[in-house]
Amino acid sequence: HEEARRAGRGLYAGAVAALSAGDEELTRTRFEALYADAVERAARYFDAVAAAFPEIETLPPAFEWNAKAGRVYAHAEVARDLVASIATGALAPGSFLPSIDELSARYAVSPITVRRALGMLRDLGVAETINGRGTRVASSTLRFEGGAGGENAFRAGIEVFLDALELLVEVLPLAARQAFGALAAAPEAGDAAGRAGGDGEDWSLPGDLMRALAAAQPLQPFRVILEELEELLHWGYVFLLARPGSDARRQLMACARRAAHALADGDERAYADALAAYYRTMLVEIRGYLAQTGISA
Fold this sequence. Notes:
Blueprint: H1 2-21, H2 24-52, H3 74-87, H4 100-107, H5 111-123, E1 127-130, E2 134-137, H6 152-185, H7 187-196, H8 204-215, H9 220-232, H10 236-242, H11 247-265, H12 268-293
Antiparallel strand pairs: 1-2
Helix pairs in contact: 1-2, 3-5, 3-10, 4-5, 6-9, 6-12, 7-8, 7-11, 8-9, 11-12
């Protein structure tokens, strides 16, 4: 045990030295070795405990994380989800939204919360209230002339969304490396390639690719993290709607199609690069848009 502790301290000292020297690659390598050693020693310890106390039930890992808890307002989340439905064409201009009671039941929120969400949609210019009939989708193009852009709930949602984007860009290569074998063998790989070859903009494709990647993760905590990040990314549709003529839309769809084809071809590197490029492009585009409009959080 003392020898293992000395080895761990040596790995830690080496990692800190590399960090202090500003050597990024060596720092990454040494921290990976440090944590791999910690995992191995912890596994040996728990194996010994399990052998010594066989009567103790072994439970599967139960990592939980709610990325939105305490940081996303309920009415803003409802509004974001409805905007995503408008962006993907599930709710077309001219169609009516479900009633307040139906939306209240769907999202498990109060009617007051739904009314605030609908007010945000009106401020964003994508919905209008028709007396006696309900709320109708008015447009698939956003504007920020009303109160939504300055509302704390909207800004809080932007902050969480950008945090998720930044984290996702960093972890995607690792996620792809861990799950690509299982992912490429799944029938969804061929389906995604078929959809990528179609005409038009299929904005459900990148979300489906991300959800499939999360589901294929062998480590439960990492799977939970990716699922939560994907859920937060619905805010991206808000900004895609805000700039319908932007070339970023074409770039994003091209990245999603490349990822789908690479998955079908079994090309792990191209798949990871294309998915990372998708979210990196979105991050750069949205940062620029927020600075341009003055609604940056």
